[in-house]
Amino acid sequence: MGPQDAASDTPTPVFFLAGGTGISAETLGNLLLAQFPGLNFTRRKIPFITSVEKAAEVMAEIDAAMTDSVTPLAFSTVSDDPIRQVLQGTQAAFIDLFGSHLDTVERILHVNATHSAAALHGVGDTLRYDRRMKAIEFAMEHDDGASLRNLAQSDLILVAPSRCGKTPTSMYLALQHGLKVANYPLVPEDFDTGDLPRPIAQRADKCFGLLSTPARLSQVRGERRPGSTYATLAQCSFELRRAEAMYRAHRIPSINSAKMSVEEMAAVIMQSSRLPDLA
Amino acid sequence: MGPQDAASDTPTPVFFLAGGTGISAETLGNLLLAQFPGLNFTRRKIPFITSVEKAAEVMAEIDAAMTDSVTPLAFSTVSDDPIRQVLQGTQAAFIDLFGSHLDTVERILHVNATHSAAALHGVGDTLRYDRRMKAIEFAMEHDDGASLRNLAQSDLILVAPSRCGKTPTSMYLALQHGLKVANYPLVPEDFDTGDLPRPIAQRADKCFGLLSTPARLSQVRGERRPGSTYATLAQCSFELRRAEAMYRAHRIPSINSAKMSVEEMAAVIMQSSRLPDLA
């Protein structure tokens, strides 16, 4: 088989359609597209398709992207029946990530689905919002060892040398999972003995360590302080070696952040530390 | 039709299976389950299923949840063929959110899929990580008007009275979309005239306003400072009215955060302000 438009590199237009934010349409659609590494795509996300009028507009936009040689792909998680029916009228390829599985779930559960836009919003969302907000505030207050108050209240303490990814990982865990995450920076003085630094010495059970590679850490530090001792390969290598030994000695689980996304780090940490999803 | 186990409220075990973090398996699976509001489910996410050995363990765990009256549901986004084949051997309902659409995409693109775990990680991820990290640092530095430096570099300035959701929304936009978001708190003194506060007066084009309902705002403020004037319904109502008038006068788009999730606010703001996804 050859690609859609073998004569040129014309990209295939891809649409992600959703009644809500479009996060799962986009994530799952991109997972499918990643199976076709040689091809080019242009991507457009259209969230909040909540009326048949809007759906008709969207359908017209997708159809306008059709050419003799290129069929657009439209990945949809729209759950409202009348709106889905309008979108299914497109001449493009409509990939119904939602509807195609609903029959299966109905069959297994022996219950009819409501076939309406999901009522995901209720009083529970306010609680969830409050939990996430408090978790974010906790993370900001306890960023980079800024506050050692309330460490006892934290669900997790991320420990690492400077620039190994503590802050984005803390924020992600707070925002996506409602977890109270403090983070504690290991500075060179912390390696004078093999002991854990005093503020976290009694809390090793809550600690999780981050590591990186010397090359990656040196690069990240160099962007912040170009030409500094702090950013040299030798210094980065020393701190990482000592941090790793410290984690091992105190049975603190750890991961190397150099080749992981924030999402992956968060998922690994939650699995390893058996943290509940509070959001 | 009646539910699986009409005699009791036995919840149906639900598994979210993925080769990666499991975010889309979970989001899309929950969207499907939301169509069955009367039923109970127990949920378990199993991410990073990256070997056939791990897949066999997972399959055994799912099968162990089968009973005479209850069939578990397993939503999967696993993309690696040999691993999927193992998981498909389960006696439970295997809902293949990925594989069931791959044929369609192959047919439209006239190209065979690689049928392997997607190679999502490359040099692009390091750039993405750096952009997100810088955006988070920017958001922290510019939180609650903490710094007015570099406002010119921001992609967006969120403006609102205290406790309308500026901080979590800024963090979400930074983390998920790599956007540099400053936020500026409107305090009662800012309403003495109808003018925009000086630091943002020349930047109305970058501003986006948040609002809430007086009841919700009063509740959130009351948790922070119980019994304060700041938290009274009258004060909240006054500030919200004035903020709304200010947004209108200066053509600043706005949304009411009272009934929206952070994800929804972020998606609406990006759509309204035509912000690109930089992550």
UniProtKB/TrEMBL annotation, chains A, B:
It comes from Nostocoides veronense. Its EC number is 2.7.11.33, 2.7.4.28. Signal peptide: none annotated. Pfam families: Kinase-PPPase. InterPro entries: Kinase-pyrophosphorylase, PSRP. Belongs to the pyruvate, phosphate/water dikinase regulatory protein family. PSRP subfamily. This is Putative phosphoenolpyruvate synthase regulatory protein. ADP binds at residues 160-167. It catalyses: [pyruvate, water dikinase]-phosphate + phosphate + H(+) = [pyruvate, water dikinase] + diphosphate; [pyruvate, water dikinase] + ADP = [pyruvate, water dikinase]-phosphate + AMP + H(+). It is an enzyme of class 2 (transferase). The keyword Ribonucleoprotein does not apply. The keyword Nucleotide-binding applies. Bifunctional serine/threonine kinase and phosphorylase involved in the regulation of the phosphoenolpyruvate synthase (PEPS) by catalyzing its phosphorylation/dephosphorylation. Keywords: Kinase, Nucleotide-binding, Pyruvate, Serine/threonine-protein kinase, Transferase.
